[in-house]
Design a protein that fits this description.
Elements lengths: L1 E7 L6 H9 L8 E7 L2 E7 L12 E4 L3 E10 L2 H10 L9 H12 L9 E9 L4 E6 L8 E5 L2 E5 L2 H4 L11 H10 L12 E3 L4 E6 L4 E5 L13 H19 L6 E4 L4 H13 L4 E7 L8 H12 L2 E7 L1 H6 L1 H8 L7 H12 L5 E3 L4 H5 L5 H7 L7 H13 L5 H9 L1 H4 L11 H7 L9 H11 L5 H11 L1 H15 L4 E3 L5 H8 L14 H7 L5 H4 L10 H6 L1 H11 L2 H6 L2 H13 L4 H17 L2
Helix pairs in contact: 2-3, 6-7, 6-21, 6-22, 7-8, 10-28, 11-20, 13-19, 14-15, 19-20, 25-27
């Protein structure tokens, strides 16, 4: 795990700029750094060493009919097999690092090498002979890569804050990103909160030449292909075999690898598989004193660790600690996040980093296998398919006017998922009409349903529940879940590895029919049956928790309300938001109406704005 950066049209005098870009990402790689400036290109690297500790220094350079230079962030888990194939073809190696394997694979196969890699990665290769810079990002978007084009100069980095260090870029707030953030709780567009800075999408490569001419292309897509004849036992066996092999590969390193543990099925399954190969596995948990019983992460994780015979270290996070670190977290995130779980993950990773350099984490299981309870809403609505949608809409309006329960259910049934579901946070974020009322100058930007529409169109042949999964794979997973996974681990120079987001695990998941994903009684049906081979039945069936944060209670307290009101009445708040509406949200929340996520989204944005613009 590392931090990479670079730019074209570089001169030797740009070494100071390159060094500053690297230094602002020192947390991503405290074990070493390197710079390369030659032939009009600059490449920078900060290293977190986990494989081939003495041999993986970057930028990595090889010569063959010209110079090839690589900067790489991530891990190639099948690099030994790829290397063996390359050696059969006559290539020799001077290190045993996956970095050198990746560069030689590119030299041999060009962009086709991407189809041979299993791992998480963002990398850039300078091909001196062709005068081209080639950049790529892994299939699921686990590792980030940002870029901007200023004139004909191309600038890229693992984190936005590194691009901000380049004098060619002048920072400017992207108002449309704010509009989408208020509905999605994350930056949902290709362009970030910084005008002119873009994300390289997951599963894409990009090539740019000396003149700044750029070409981008998708090289892989997570396509579901349900097999209606697949039986439960066979499906569970396939999933279990794929997960165990993935954990074996993800657990390989020249340093200690631990596991985050929440007590739920996703993290417990990973920890169990890791423990089978390493009896000294350490697990890490955080919780909050406000939670008890089934919501007590620490107690549940402790019981799970005892059953696995794994060491578990836990930490109780206080309210004061949580609030004192918000600015630090948002600086690391680069963009505002409306997901308060990022804070809990920050403390979990901080704890793990005191003992290990890498941890396994359970991201991706819900999106691949059908883990969110909201997917069950599509099954419930299916009972009303025979009812005309116009009648359902009239019934929904009548129920809403009378204050009757079920109005939202009827409205959703009338629309279908494409009409109302665009992210896992849609129920707690602002609706488009509420967003426009909140903003002082609404831009009439793209509706969130329009952002998701191409994904629904592509997945129209699938059942509604799987359409929702497909949307989450491309939006929620990449822009919320994996963003905070990368940033919060890297904040502590810790590598987070996500074994469920492996192309071979996806092959086991893609063929599952709907009945082995979600039923009205259970989520992740086949996955839970697979996990039961490694876990007690009650753990395999446990409801998802995911480091819950007691933010609702905190935001209702007088002290926090006073703190929020000061920021909500600041000059920036008055410039961008209807502050009367903000005060009303606070008043209603204190009176008992839950506005937790909406208040947090605005607060997080204003704190972020203060850090990056004030």
């Amino acid at each position: 795990m590392c931090g990479i950066c670079g730019f074209t049209q570089a001169e030797l005098a740009d070494v100071r700029t390159l060094k500053e870009m690297c230094d602002v990402m020192a947390h991503r790689g405290p074990d070493g750094e390197g710079q390369f400036i030659r032939d009009g290109v600059a490449l920078g690297h900060r290293r977190l060493a986990l494989v081939d500790l003495p041999g993986g220094t970057q930028p990595f350079i090889r010569e063959k009919n010209g110079t090839f230079a690589l900067v790489f962030n991530g891990e190639i888990y099948n690099h030994a097999a790829v290397r063996a194939k390359l050696m059969q073809m006559g290539w020799t190696f001077r290190t045993r690092s996956d970095t050198e394997t990746l560069l030689v694979a590119y030299m041999q196969w060009g962009e086709e090498c991407l189809h041979r890699l299993r791992g998480m990665f963002a990398f850039a290769v300078w091909d001196e002979r062709r005068g081209q810079l080639f950049c790529a990002r892994d299939p699921f978007g686990i590792k980030p890569l940002y870029y901007t084009v200023q004139g004909t100069r191309f600038i890229f980095a693992s984190e936005i804050k590194a691009i901000l260090r380049h004098p060619a870029y002048r920072r400017q707030l992207n108002q449309e990103a704010l509009e989408q953030y208020l509905c999605f709780q994350f930056s949902a567009l290709p362009e970030t909160f910084f005008k002119g800075i873009f994300k390289l999408p997951a599963a894409h490569w990009l090539r740019v030449d000396r003149q700044g001419t750029m070409h981008m292309q998708r090289y892989w897509s997570p396509e579901f292909a349900p097999d209606a004849h697949l039986e439960s036992e066979e499906a569970a066996a396939r999933v279990d075999a794929a997960v165990r092999e993935s954990v074996r590969l993800h657990g390989a390193a020249d340093v200690s690898v631990g596991s985050l543990l929440s007590g739920g099925v996703d993290s417990s399954y990973l920890a169990s598989c890791l423990c089978e190969s390493d009896a000294s596995t350490q697990t890490f948990t955080v919780g909050f004193a406000e939670y008890e019983g089934e919501s007590d992460e620490i107690a549940q994780a402790g019981r799970a660790a005892t059953g696995l015979r794994a060491a578990n270290e836990a930490r109780v996070v206080s309210q004061d600690e949580y609030w004192a670190n918000i600015g630090r977290v948002l600086w690391h995130m680069d963009e505002p996040t409306g997901d308060p779980a990022a804070m809990a993950l920050f403390f979990a990773d901080e704890l793990a980093a005191t003992r290990v350099k890498a941890v396994l984490s359970g991201e991706g299981a819900d999106e691949l296998f059908g883990g969110y309870h909201i997917y069950q809403a599509a099954l419930a609505a299916r009972r009303l398919r025979a009812v005309p949608r116009s009648l359902l809409r009239r019934c929904a309006r009548a129920a809403a006017i009378r204050g009757m329960r079920g109005a939202n259910f009827l409205d959703r049934a009338a629309q279908g998922p494409a009409g109302w579901y665009y992210t896992n946070a849609h129920q707690v974020a602002f609706r488009p009409t509420e967003r426009d009322a909140l903003l002082v100058r609404p831009g009439g930007g793209t509706l969130p349903q329009q952002v998701a529409a191409p994904l629904y169109e592509h997945a129209a042949h699938l059942p509604a529940t799987m359409q929702m999964q497909y949307v989450d794979l491309h939006l929620w997973l990449v822009e919320d879940i994996l963003q905070k996974t990368d940033r919060m681990s890297m904040a502590h120079s810790l590598e987070a590895r996500v074994p469920y987001l492996d192309t071979e695990v996806f092959q086991a998941a893609r063929v599952l029919p709907e009945r082995l994903r979600v039923t009205r009684q259970q989520t992740k049906v086949a996955f839970r049956r697979a996990a039961a081979s490694a876990l007690p039945l009650h753990t395999a069936a446990r409801t998802k928790l995911g480091f819950p944060v007691p933010l609702r209670q905190w935001l209702a307290a007088d002290g926090r309300q006073a703190q929020l009101r000061v920021l909500f009445d600041s000059p920036v708040a008055r410039e961008l938001f209807d502050t009367t509406m903000l005060r009303r949200l606070l008043d209603e929340h204190r009176a008992g109406r839950d506005h937790t996520r909406r208040i947090w989204m605005v607060y997080a944005f204003l704190v972020w704005h203060r850090i990056y613009f004030d």
